[in-house]
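Minutes, project check-in

Agenda point 3 was the complex the collaborators sent over. CS summarized: two entities, 698 residues total, and the question is how they sit relative to each other. Sequences were read into the notes so everyone works from the same version.
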Amino acid sequence: MVEIFGIPSGALFGQLLIGLINGSFYALLSLGLAVIFGMLNIINFAHGAQYMLGAVMAFLLLQWTGIGYWWALIVAPLIVGAIGIVIERAFLQWLYKLDHLYGLLLTFGLALIVEGISRNFLGSAGLPYALPDSLRGGQNLGFMFLPNYRAWVIVASLTVCFATWFVIERTRLGAYLRAATENPTLVRAFGINVPVMITLTYGFGVALAAFAGVMAAPIYNVSPQMGSELIIVVFAVVVIGGMGSILGAIITGFSLGVVEGLTKVFFPEASNTVIFVIMAIVLLVRPAGLFGRRT
Amino acid sequence: MRKSLGLAALAALLLCGTASAQQINVKIGVLTDMSSLYADDTGPGSVIAAKLAAEDFMKSHPNVKVEVVSADHQNKADAGTNIVNQWIDRDGVDMVADVPNSGVALAISEVIRAKNKVFVASGPASSDLTGPKCSPNTVHWTYDTWMLANGTGKAIVKSGGDTWFFLTSDYAFGHALERDTAAVVEKSGGKVLGKVRHPINTNDFSSFLLQAQSSKAKVIGLANAGGDTINAIKQGAEFGIVAGGQKFAGLLIFAPDVAALGLKTAQGLTFTETWYWDLNDGTRAWTKRWDKERNSAGKLPSMNMAGVYSGTLHYLKAVAAVGSSKDGAKVVEEMKKLPAEDSIYGKSTVRVDGRVLHPAYLFEVKKPEESKYPGDLYNIKATIPPEEAFRPLKDGNCPLVKG
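CS then shared the predicted structure for the full assembly.
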């Protein structure tokens, strides 16, 4: 077998693919964060907790009502998104005019509360969530064994990311949204209900996190801290991509997944710091992020 | 005048002290992982175990007043040492129990030694605690990496698993477990083909599993614990590790982990533990009490929690025998002299290096159809007698052992 930098090429391709799978999660989560920050100017620190809630909701739906994976993929984000809407109406709407810090502290506090409550009821070891039967098994690609479910993760994540980008950047609805963040008063004057639109946007961003949570449930254990472990990395992704940049979040999400995957081959011990090293470098060289606009 | 009054008071105090049954106050600190990857194997369950021990002991010794406090070390050595320093200097804690995470345990062992208190290490695994890093103030209950490696490693090599690849948690515990297991594998005629070290608390093992897969080793040894082991096994099933003919050796697995994995995924795993809730009437009765306090459906006590109970009880016996909890080294000396016996661990002895000896069991996880009731997880494959289960005294390089 051909070797690249002393690593068999098969192993390298396998790691690249795995990086892409992890990148799918980074992309989905950072996309939600970017949408919320871009449209609401809120640094949503509760994103990890909302991701976890998505997974927990999928688990509870299965336990209590027998609703399986495919329906959970739709129902869980709706429920968690609705919770997000309540949060926006009850708390966040009062903070838009204040410094970012207030939104950050509030959502961080909410995240701690949600995680604490879940830990109390679910414990820390996590709960098993079975793979859907139709996605069991996998394909032998020659250089690696690709589980069907992981392939599905890449496809689903790419589709959702592209659809979101398309709606926000290329449709009339998206144009309204972007206009409303630039100049809410003017957009209101055209007869568009801006507060409702903002509320729904937050609900959508939260639903994206919950969607990622349901996707993650069969791979990782459904555990209260699954979100807090991921959220820091995802924030780094958003910072590298440029706060509020939708395309930036998607592209950096996938590419950092790949970078991390490669680090696991060449220097596994550094695999959980490499993203932060990149973040530090990007912040020094391009403080607005790779895809961010200077304001 | 004042001087003589003082003397009189002192004399009166001394008289009281000797005349009535001495009142002894003991404060126990359970330092544990309350919120992360080891919290279900230790954490709140360990605190309950310590409280049960205190309760039982105070019933038979009304003159001893035991107070139990607890804290979360967050798996950080610096956080752990800070808490222990405060506990001892400010709060008057006499004994620290549990302490999952060998990194934290090795750090606080030094603090406790310097301040002459007692460390009943029932949570950490590193065999160094009774080896080169042994201390006259530390007693190591429950298990250690040598015992895990010896029990599981030997059994698996014997059954044909003679080539190994390690997935190792990258800190003191993982390194010790990998080292001890590799030694056993090689001694039994097996070969170690490679290893990869992953950060503690890793969410995604796919990359490491792929490396293990391409090593073509027959056995993938998991030198990790808690949430890490659960994730590795779960994702291994997804990547077709077992279907591809490789086998996992979970080197440290607790009952709560097996429950979290589910029997379908965990079935057939073979590993060594010193305690299981369903061993005998004593353990079952204790589990019932524990469960009532824990009050969380479906949770099982682990061997660590049982170790906290057993270790705390024996510590209290030694305190009562010495008559004070203040001189830690003296209490530990007494713990080594007294035979330990309780309803859940049976008889144990404390060796001069601080190692506690009790039998170990080789368990196999049941198939889903073999499980008769909730929590029915293990078959016992073998019982390893105490003197075989743990490292021989002379091999530990503990400075406390002379000659």
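Noted in discussion: The radius of gyration of chain B is 22 Å.
Follow-up: revisit at the next meeting once the mutant set is ready.
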